[in-house]
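Aim 2, interim progress: modelling of the benzoic acid-bound target.
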Amino acid sequence: VGNEVPNVDVFEGAPDKKVNLREATQSGKFVIFGVPGAFTPGCSKTHLPGYVKMADTLKGKGVSEIFCLSVNDPFVMAAWGENQEATGKVRMMADTCGEFTKAAGLELDLSAVLGSVRCKRFSMLVEDGKVSKMLVEPDGTGLTCSLAENLF
Ligand code: BEZ
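Predicted structure of the complex, ligand included:
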């Protein structure tokens, strides 16, 4: 909390569609939440659907955009967003090489279950480029503090 958002590019929809999350969150209020993996049961049944359902409520509280981030490739993230009817509500960001995850200190080695180092489950409120609230699941994958209803 208090730090700037990592100055890192992530990808939206395709490997050539870069989004720099520091630039994208420079002015106004934003939510970034991170998940261990696209299409995993907890992320698909609870975490992402919660943000999709609460998108209008969060936007009513002044949030301009909601970003979902995972260490996955951009095509998988786009397909997951379509599958979850997230279009227009939650933007699906691929942290393809885990650079954002590393810079934010959120790495979690899930090699044994998902094949690689992934991102801990978290939610972050960003105001004018600075992290104003940071909720990281204590065990890295649980579904407690980082759920949409706990952000405000
Ligand atoms: C999940 O269901 O969200 C999950 C499954 C395996 C590893 C991490 C998360």
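The beta strands are 9-11, 18-20, 29-35, 63-70, 91-94, 107-109, 117-119, 122-127, 130-136. The mean pLDDT is 98.
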